[in-house]
Write a sequence for this structure.
């Protein structure tokens, strides 16, 4: 009522690029600790296929206690 603000909802997928994410399931690493490009690509495709409008690529850790 009287509010002309657009209320378009967008979905954001978050992809962690760091190896120290607090949620281990979000890391894109092989068992030996190296970056797994295939897993990374599959996660992005899955997010886009699931309706993500925006992808946030987290290249810098923000977990509590992380080095800056």
């Amino acid at each position: 009522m009287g509010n002309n603000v657009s209320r378009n909802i967008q979905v954001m997928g978050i992809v962690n690029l760091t190896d120290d994410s607090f949620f281990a399931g979000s890391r894109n690493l092989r068992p030996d600790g190296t970056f797994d490009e295939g897993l990374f690509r599959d996660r992005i495709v899955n997010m886009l296929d699931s309706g993500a409008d925006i992808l946030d690529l987290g290249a810098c850790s923000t977990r509590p206690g992380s080095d800056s």
User: Anything to note?
Assistant: The mean pLDDT is 83.
